[in-house]
Every structure is written in C-alpha cells, then in structure tokens.
Amino acid sequence: MKINCNSAWAQTVEEAIEIQKQLRHLVIVENDLGEVRYVAGVDVGFEDNYTMTQAAVAVLSFPQLQLLESAIAQIPTTFPYIPGFLSFREIPAILKALEKLNLAPDLILCDGQGIAHPRRFGIACHLGVLIDVPTIGVAKSLLVGKHEELSPEKGSWQPLRDRGEVVGAVLRTRTNVNPVYVSVGHRISLITAIDYVLRCTTKYRLPETTRLADKLASGKK
DNA sequence: GCGACAG
DNA sequence: ATCTTGTCGC
After folding, report:
1. How confident is the model over A20-32, as pLDDT tens digits?
2. Could you tell me the distance in Å between the CA of residue A118 and the C1' of nucleotide B4?
C-alpha cells in the first residue's frame, strides 16, 4: 500500500509531546469505516541487542481470518522505549512494512493503546492518523485508567476510565484468562472496536491478527 | 516529592 | 520487548 506521510520524527521527548498534542486533534472516535474485508495486525520485535527494529504486518480475510498476505521490514532503532512514547520507537518500521503490502487493510489492530493514553494519543491513534486508516489499540497491560472488576467469561467487559472520561474497555477475550485493554485508535467507536476485537479472536487471548504479526516479527515458527 | 509506567 | 522447559489446569 502507498504511504503518504512525510511526518517529521521527534528526537526528544519534548518534541514528541508537541507532536502528540498537535496530532491528537485529528483523531476520529466515531465509526468512519466501510465494509471490512481485510483486517491487519501489526507488531514489532527487536534484534541485535535492540539496535535493529523489525516490524511485521499480517493481513487476514474478514470474517474468515485466513492469512492472505504478510510483510516484514527492519530499520535501525532510533528512539528508546519510554512509556507514553511507544509510537516514536515503533511506527517508522511499521510504515516500512505496510508499504510492502499489495492488499490495503480496511482495519488495523495495533499492539498497544489507542486513546487510553496520557495525552489520548497512543500508538494506534498515531498510526491511524498518519496513514488515515481505521485502527484499534489492543494492549496486554494497562498504561492509564481504572476499572471495575469484570466477569471471568469471554466477552465480558468494563469501561476503562481516566480523569473522568471513558478512554477504552477492559475486555475478556477468553474465559478465565487475563483481559486485554481495547481503545479507539482512529475512525471507529469503542463499541465497534470491541466487536471487531472479539470477532478477530478465536481460541487465544490475543486476536489472530496480532498473533500472526507477532510470530512474524519475532521470527518464530 | 513519590509512585506508575503500552512494548 | 527479550532471556527460556516443564508443568498445571480446563
């Protein structure tokens, strides 16, 4: 797929904060997506003692969830891991991998937060805004927010609140297994995002999209 | 000032 | 994120 953004990348946390504060106004938290036929998962892994960043993208058919295409790309690591600034470390490599795709995803599930972020601009929002594609943030752990305890059955969820606003949902994707944290990335509502995450999840905790991307990014079997 | 802190 | 085998439970 063709990627447009010639976005300037922050070299310092101060610059990153300014970019987040500016771009967050572009995030659309309502449904603005067409028919979803291709769902993609993106993930990143590191090599050579973290000096190289490798991104992987897996495109699956929806709702069948069959792998249709995948791509990987590596790039020198340029930004450290700092909570709240994950996108500046991972997105450059992700964009490079996305460029290699022939199929343009209708929806992308990201490994990390969307709106559930200190400045409401997690990696899912950043990627979605840059390439103007609907995205959902699916994180394995909490960055910000609190929530009530939720039932152990698959499908149950509770709103995630931070500083007085609902920023996402804690969702049980598998019975008796730790939940995942879902939040809007771009051009989708929270309710719709929860629905897609569940429909992309089969027998494991994580959606098939991110599981496949995960496998590719870490070079496993 | 003291914790908390996606991957 | 990543280093790593077996093992407990549905």
Report:
1. 999 999 999 999 9
2. 12
